[in-house]
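User: For my dataset I need records formatted as: sequence, then structure tokens, nothing else. Please produce one.
Assistant:
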Amino acid sequence: MDSQPIGAPVDPVTPLSPSRVALAGRFVLLQPLHADKHGPALWEVIRGEANHSLWRYLPYGPFANHGEFQADLKMKAAAADSVFFAILDKANARGYAALMRIVPENRCIEVGNVLFAPPLQRTPAATEAMYLLARYVFDELHYRRYEWKCDALHARSRRAALRLGFQFEGIFRQHRIVKGHNRDTAWFSMLDSEWPERKANFERWLAPENFDTSGKPIHSLSHLNGVPHE
């Protein structure tokens, strides 16, 4: 008898492709990215020398002017292999993120190209945006693996992945060349079997009763997800 091990069988669910849909929460609204609609407000909060650090670990940017930025947004909005979402604080665009590297046959998908302008950073809206995308991926599209990748030197992105409930998997050494520099890539994932607990933690953190009168969360999401520090 053949005694070689083999992986567990997988239920034959066919995942859906991400669509250009709106995803609404209490703090934030995600809309399909549209350069003319979202570009002007987004440009106003990312322009300037002080915000060049926003682009340090991204393969594009910074942009010299609004025209260059708009052209890049138009390419993103029209991408055939990714779906970009503008992140709005219910009024103005404050960032974007994409569902990308979509592999339906393996039910694997990645969230990437995440850009949070300063007004969005470290806010409940930013966390809720990531929750809405994860819920969409697992509950509506039926993927089994959700990935997060970043430059291994990008400490804030690595902390964010852990806080959001992704698990660190390792480093792909000399994975890419970005803007003439080496990039080792840190890989993180969240699985469909982990999602029910992660979803409950997101919803507990986002609940109105988790915020004090000053708007500060009472329980940290890192703590709920078993990460030592927020």
